[in-house]
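Submission sheet (multi-component)
Chains listed below:
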Amino acid sequence: MSTALLTDRYELTMLQAALADGTAQRRCVFEVFTRRLPAGRRYGVVAGTGRLLEAIADFRFADAELDWLRSAGVVDDATLTFLADYRFTGSISGYAEGELFFPGSPVLVVDGTFAEAVVLETLALSILNYDSAVASAASRMTWAANGRPCLEMGSRRAHEDAAVAAARAAVVAGFAGTSNLEAGRRYGLDTIGTAAHAFTLLHDDEESAFASQVASAGPGTTLLVDTYDVTRGVELAVAAAGTGLGAVRLDSGDLPTLAREVREQLDALGATGTRIVVSSDLDEHAIAALAVAPVDSYGVGTSVVTGSGAPTCGMVYKLVLREGADGELAAVAKVSAGAKSSVGGRKVAGRRLEGGIATEEVVLTSPDADVPVVDPVAASGDVLRPLHVPLVRDGEVGEAWTGSEGVQRARERHSASLAELPRAAKRLSAGEPALPTEVVVV
Amino acid sequence: MSTALLTDRYELTMLQAALADGTAQRRCVFEVFTRRLPAGRRYGVVAGTGRLLEAIADFRFADAELDWLRSAGVVDDATLTFLADYRFTGSISGYAEGELFFPGSPVLVVDGTFAEAVVLETLALSILNYDSAVASAASRMTWAANGRPCLEMGSRRAHEDAAVAAARAAVVAGFAGTSNLEAGRRYGLDTIGTAAHAFTLLHDDEESAFASQVASAGPGTTLLVDTYDVTRGVELAVAAAGTGLGAVRLDSGDLPTLAREVREQLDALGATGTRIVVSSDLDEHAIAALAVAPVDSYGVGTSVVTGSGAPTCGMVYKLVLREGADGELAAVAKVSAGAKSSVGGRKVAGRRLEGGIATEEVVLTSPDADVPVVDPVAASGDVLRPLHVPLVRDGEVGEAWTGSEGVQRARERHSASLAELPRAAKRLSAGEPALPTEVVVV
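Outcome: structure written.
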């Protein structure tokens, strides 16, 4: 499947004009960053990088795409000829997937000709904005859960393909598994799920539904006990599976109270090893409120796939450096309106650590062609951990970042970066970004 | 591309147990409905129906899907054998795409065996929940725009495939076009877009950028005039294209004031026919605030693809009628927790109209196998407009609802249904659902 038409029309009309006037071959650097975090959030989580690299490899214009562009009159023949041979031959660096970001963090740097780099804008932003929105919400949930597993169950509340990406992003940010089968297949994720209320209702009574499920899935299954009366449901569940019953799931009601009652009932029945899974409109705040309840894992749906109030990131893809008519590279930036101004020049970034604790995001930029270097050890003894990693070199995608290996690596990066944050950053309450961003022109 | 794994794992584990215990072949009716609208919203818009029907036709388990299910140990061999031959042979009726809905509206009714119907749950909800969220927001924007065209430009703020669906849903709800090329190709939508700030910055100065764009796209193009100084930008734009310049776009700043100034400047320059397009974080409220500004069209991004604060609908897929061990059909419903209870029994619906104005959503249900009939003409002279249309009959998808014809038909349905609403329903301010829903057990 080509990804080439997952693109705003203006990328191609700009390309047409630039091919005609000769500027299309100018070397350009575009950067992806966000101007602000969602209100009250302390940090964001970069996600989608691996998916983006896979999508760039599939960004090719075959006959089907070219025929439609021609028939719809989107671009002229010269542009179609260019697109027929299109592949990205430039280089891309960026924050490793799973890394934390802050306002102004240069999370992706795309270096190539204008023609090759501009057409990737829409695709890059679609992927990074959605996946990062999900991962940023999921990260808050996993630390609110404080070690108890979070399970992603939100496929039905997201576009059917977004659901696959959401499952992946949630796992990057620490979720233990997902209900989504395609995400399991594509990225090697653990998939979970046993039964819905419909299964109980299909049967003539709860006893026969539970007996059927235990016969099919074994006593280690999770039985959903709240279709009728919960107390009766728990009793029947243990009767059906024995005290080795894997888990019961509660999907409605006042969960803190209910979990306590069900735990007591299970223990009294001798099912002391039977776990309690809760679901039902959980978000990070509801998870935190269940911290002292005897709950063993959390099924999270709507809130994680919709970014818990922030369904997209505000990441933008901006031209920051370009070759001029004189052949020299020069920093550029939109300058008209205050809120949308940005800093020109190519950037690199490091995270300052004092005694292992992050204290600052340092963004280095230069007004000319030189690429600033992040010096890992400052004179003061602080560490400046470099944040950019190479993702694409001369058109070759780094394999370490894609597929299921990429997800695993991103998950580790996320966990390590989160461990560096000061304790105050891990509050659910609204506040300023956890780290200030210092921009240094060198 | 098979859509079969865009599915929660529990649909297949339920299937396995039901195949083993003999209940899989019981006739079942599942219904899709929502318990509430997003806070303050007056109505919702059904969208995605055409996409769902296309996705159901592609819901087949081929070797790739079966091999993974086997290797991951999701289901047993008997279930894999069933899935290998799976196709939906039942019937589906529902609200026509583009129709308005209210809490309790039975927007989709799926009638088939448990085995055939249960596995469609996740896919049906993913599509209807996302597409309806976008269309519900887009509908508010199009009437806030009061006849001025709204253009969908939000691809970069949504998952890359969700963006295609969002463009389609926005057009169903009255948008005039989209920036998304794949949506243009797949659904025959008008695509729009000319240039971003990067195109101006690529060039050595604004003059050469505008000259290049006019040479490439003709003077009827839209020039983006806010990269540097807007007044100077407008002057250069008219100098480059002449007074026949198609439009200027403003993407930042205080738009009501700026639009007025730019209109005066354009008129003074003789460019009286040059239109003004505004973009920059517009939502329905910002559009309404521009009602008296001299603006010709609205480019809408983030807010439309994220449902303007409501990024998903709360639609659920519930078993309401099923065959029991006695072979009789019986109404069923979850009964434990108040908020999640629902009304059992198969439903049909009609919209009551008095003098052409909608006054009530009437939902008829029956506790047994009989399907209630909506009688179009009540004794009082009111009209009860039937809301269900046949979508799939014995596995055959109605072609009128899919592809670009389906989008066009949905757009007409939306427009006609909106015209029936009382004036008070078309307020942006928060309020109760525009129509009460009356459930009648017959």
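Remark: Chain A has two domains: 9-134+310-441, 194-295.
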